Amino acid sequence: MRPGHDHDTGAPLLPLDEARSRAMSRIDRLPPTELALAEAHGCVAAEDVLAPIELPPFSSSAMDGYAVRAADVAGAAPDRPAALRPVGAVQMGSPSELEVGGGEAVAVPTGGVVPPGADAVVPVEQTIREADRVLVLAPVPPGRYVRRAGQDVRAGDVMVPAGKRLLAADLGLLASAGLGSVRAIPRARVGILSTGDELVEPGAPLGPGLVPDANALTLHGCVLEAGAVPVPLGRVPDDGAALARVLTEAEGVDVLVSSGGVSVGERDPVKAAFGSGGEVDFVEVAMQPGKPQAFGTLGGRPYFGLPGNPVSVFVSFEVFVRPAVLSMMGRGDARTEVRATLDADVTGPEEKVQFARVRLHRSNGGLVASPTGPRGSNLLATMARADGLAVIPVGVATAEAGTPVRVILVRDQP
Ligand code: AMP
Ligand code: MG
């Protein structure tokens, strides 16, 4: 057998990295848009977001107590309290008209504005309130219990740098600074189409030879887990014209994904639709599962024609579509990978990278990878049970029990 060729068919195989870069070469980042903060969660900031104001925006009290001049209470002690004149109280949410003069105290709640003139807050627990005076039982140094304006962020500071993924605390920070929206890369809208005469809607009655359209749901989940928006495009029979129509006419999508019908069978609709040259490349990738793939551009939108077997769909999305969709959304983050030791042999075609479904568990401080079952690419339960994909490189026919492997974790959530 010639290296770089399929051992069963003799067909030349495209190395995985080359296939990936060919697919990625068609991918552009989506144009940024102004997104409401809630909508922007998980999206990438398109530009540096500068603070329009300082944060905190005003000096506030960290305690329920009295705003005072620290110098007035410097010598205070329980047997020698400092007596101050109460001159009012600060209300939450309204700026104070009050000023604290020498010998005066203004009641202030936690979070209330510390009035001008005061430089410290005495906690209420260290005071005794009498009708016309406040007795302070302990000294406070200047600045104590005052949350100083501008301590966190100064006006003009970068709160979120361009390229940062906006997560919970980022959104809260932007809101604190009085912003309601942010310029960010939107989520990619991913059109999902299934092909096959045998397919029926999941939940519909089954009959001999009929197959519920599982791939649409697998892909729906994959798209959500990538932080993108699934757009179901339904099913087409094995009819190239119908497939071409749905894919080219789909509206409101940034990228298209179909499953099934990319093999050489004469009824395979992707070949029938786009096989005669043009904008779609048909490749046989040196990977298992997921060998036949189609990459293209349809009406200016990237298109991925994935094979139909349910495990191939999951693995192909992971390997090709997920990085593309993340890149469209300005994200360069990759899946977490771990090193683990196989606890059973994994055998497969040595001319291909094998993605073996494994469960992980910890043992003696290390990670152990257990294959979840046989490697048939129709066996979706073996994927559902898996925590990750162990990568068995080209040139290895059998990775024996005890071999260290790289495992891509496929279950982490956005
Ligand atoms: P294909 O790539 O179209 O030759 O399909 C390969 C295998 O995957 C066949 O057994 C199909 O029935 C199955 N298959 C294709 N599409 C789907 C789908 N959407 N859901 C479940 N199985 C599918
Ligand atoms: Mg088919």
Provide a descriptive summary of the structure in words.
The chain is an alpha+beta fold. The protein folds into 4 domains: 16-30 and 187-328, 3-Layer(aba) Sandwich (Molybdenum Cofactor Biosythetic Enzyme, Chain A); 35-53 and 156-185, Molybdopterin biosynthesis moea protein, domain 2 (Alpha-Beta Complex), CATH 3.90.105.10; 60-147, Molybdopterin biosynthesis moea protein, domain 3 (Molybdopterin biosynthesis moeA protein, domain 3, Beta Complex); 337-409, MoeA, C-terminal, domain IV (Beta-clip). Helix content is 17%, strand content 31%. The protein is built from 7 helices and 29 strands. It has a 6-stranded mixed beta sheet with strand order 8-5-7-6-10-9, with no helix packed on it. Strand 25 (353-363) and strand 26 (366-371) form a beta hairpin. Helix 1 crosses helix 6 (310-328). It is elongated and about 95 Å long. The model has no long low-confidence stretch (mean pLDDT 96).
Give the structure's gist in a few sentences:
The protein is an alpha+beta fold. It has 7 helices and 29 strands. It has 4 domains: 16-30 and 187-328, MoaB/Mog-like domain (Molybdenum Cofactor Biosythetic Enzyme, Chain A); 35-53 and 156-185, Molybdopterin biosynthesis moea protein, domain 2; 60-147, Beta Complex (Molybdopterin biosynthesis moeA protein, domain 3); 337-409, Beta Barrel (Beta-clip).
Describe the secondary structure blueprint for this structure.
Layout: H1 16-24, E1 33-36, E2 44-45, E3 49-50, E4 60-61, E5 65-68, E6 82-89, E7 104-108, E8 120-123, E9 127-129, E10 134-136, E11 146-147, E12 158-160, H2 168-176, E13 181-185, E14 189-195, E15 199-200, E16 211-212, H3 214-225, E17 229-236, H4 240-249, E18 255-259, H5 269-274, E19 280-284, E20 287-288, E21 292-298, E22 301-306, H6 310-328, E23 337-342, E24 346-347, E25 353-363, E26 366-371, H7 380-384, E27 388-392, E28 398-399, E29 404-409
Parallel strand pairs: 6-7, 14-17, 14-18, 15-16, 18-22, 20-25, 23-26
Antiparallel strand pairs: 1-13, 2-13, 3-12, 4-11, 5-7, 5-8, 6-10, 9-10, 19-21, 21-22, 23-29, 24-28, 25-26, 25-27, 27-29
Bound molecules: adenosine monophosphate (AMP) and magnesium ion.
